[in-house]
């Protein structure tokens, strides 16, 4: 804890951590956020995306419109930490730091209350369902959001393994395109003593998995980066007299951008078509949890860099996109903006690890950086 960080924001973060809710179920989380941020006198508070919240500051229709987004959902992970604010919900915990991101946005609301927006408007989005890739789309499709057209949209993510409060960004792809592929293989059940009278998908599934390895380019520095990760498979029943007739393979695909993802999925579909034709096994595919790459606007990145350096924060430009996905990418597909990272500490456990926790020392500096970005955008707009 730093002397500059008000205790109420750390306490708020700890409260969120104690009562986590997974994607799409953030009902109590929204109530806690709404009750807390109401004291900072937003111009308007609107419930959006079923379990999200939208705050407006300022009413000037002629000035710049800036959007700042934080995610609010937790993960289905059992926490092993034993500190005082540990999760009270069995099997659910904030292992990605969204409780911290929410506290940062709440602190920003307090700063905007102290320094009212006189030019343009600022929108703070407390977005649900980031972890399953559905939240950004739900916000953007909400009728309450229809008339909001941000000139700039910004978001952050904490970064374990980086020094505390270092700012990390880059123009172009900041995070990867991520898509989960579900492949079903349908053959014909038979007696296990007479497999020739059925169509067992086992060898086709095995062949498919082995051949996907040759489609990978796992070097994240490469423009052709493509990572294929098997995450789940199932086949048949635990009945040893039956030769299986159905199986599934679930994969997570990661590429540097949407175009590369289109190429990769086309290669996988072609491979599956060949295997189906050779074996007689029927193949069907489905997609889930799609995350667009965060495509950072070059000018927005420069604003982040200028703001960080002005505040005295160290700044690093990443050489390659991060391999994980983040659904703020859908915002950067529609609006000029950028996502950046802030170091959670070099000794911090990794994201989605059961012993991870958000670093409370980031609340104040991250909120100050967002405020500086808002003021810089207002300055740019007034000059133009």
UniProtKB/TrEMBL annotation:
UniProt entry tagged with the keyword Hydrolase: yes
The record's free-text note on cofactor binding: The Mn(2+) ion enhances activity.
UniProt cross-references to InterPro entries, sorted A to Z: Amidohydrolase, Bact_exopeptidase_dim_dom, Peptidase_M20, Peptidase_M20_dimer
Highest taxon in the source lineage: Bacteria
A GO term, aspect molecular function: hydrolase activity
Stretches assigned to the Peptidase M20 dimerisation domain: 179-275
Reported cofactor(s): Mn(2+)
Keywords tagged on the record: Hydrolase, Manganese, Metal-binding
Presence of keyword Hydrolase: yes
Annotated residues for binding of Mn(2+): 96, 98, 131, 157, 352
A UniProt-annotated Pfam family: Peptidase_M20
Record-given protein name: Amidohydrolase
Species this chain originates from: Spirosoma linguale (strain ATCC 33905 / DSM 74 / LMG 10896 / Claus 1)
């Amino acid at each position: 804890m730093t002397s500059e960080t008000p205790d109420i924001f750390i306490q708020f973060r700890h409260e969120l951590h104690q009562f986590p809710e997974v994607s799409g179920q953030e009902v109590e989380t929204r109530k806690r956020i709404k009750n807390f941020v109401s004291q900072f006198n937003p111009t308007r508070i609107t419930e959006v995306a079923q379990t999200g919240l939208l705050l407006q500051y300022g009413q000037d229709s002629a000035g710049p419109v800036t959007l700042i987004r934080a995610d609010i959902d937790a993960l289905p992970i059992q926490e092993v930490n034993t500190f005082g604010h540990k999760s009270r919900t069995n099997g659910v915990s904030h292992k990605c730091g969204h409780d911290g991101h929410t506290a940062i946005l709440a602190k920003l609301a307090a700063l905007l209350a102290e320094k009212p927006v006189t030019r343009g408007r600022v929108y703070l989005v407390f977005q649900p369902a980031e972890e399953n890739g559905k939240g950004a789309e739900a916000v953007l499709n909400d009728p309450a959001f229809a008339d909001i057209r941000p000139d700039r949209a910004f978001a952050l993510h904490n970064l374990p393994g980086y020094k505390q409060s270092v700012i990390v960004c880059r123009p172009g792809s900041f995070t990867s395109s991520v898509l989960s592929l579900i492949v079903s293989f349908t053959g014909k059940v038979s007696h296990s003593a007479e497999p020739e009278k059925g169509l067992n998908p086992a060898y086709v599934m095995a062949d498919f998995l082995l051949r996907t390895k040759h489609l990978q380019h796992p070097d994240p520095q490469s423009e052709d980066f493509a990572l294929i990760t098997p995450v789940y498979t199932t086949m048949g029943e635990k009945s040893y007299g039956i030769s299986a007739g159905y199986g599934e393979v679930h994969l997570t695909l990661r590429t540097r951008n949407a175009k590369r993802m289109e190429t990769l999925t086309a290669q996988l579909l072609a491979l599956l078509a060949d295997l189906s034709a050779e074996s007689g096994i029927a193949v069907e595919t489905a997609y889930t949890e799609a995350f667009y790459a965060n495509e950072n606007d070059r000018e927005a990145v420069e604003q982040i860099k200028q703001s960080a350096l002005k505040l005295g924060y160290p700044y690093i430009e990443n050489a390659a996109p991060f391999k994980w996905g983040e659904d703020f990418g859908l915002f950067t597909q529609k609006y000029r903006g950028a996502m950046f990272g802030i170091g959670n500490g070099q000794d911090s456990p990794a994201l989605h690890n059961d012993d991870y926790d958000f670093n409370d020392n980031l609340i104040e500096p991250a909120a100050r950086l967002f405020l500086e970005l808002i003021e810089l955008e207002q300055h740019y707009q007034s000059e133009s």
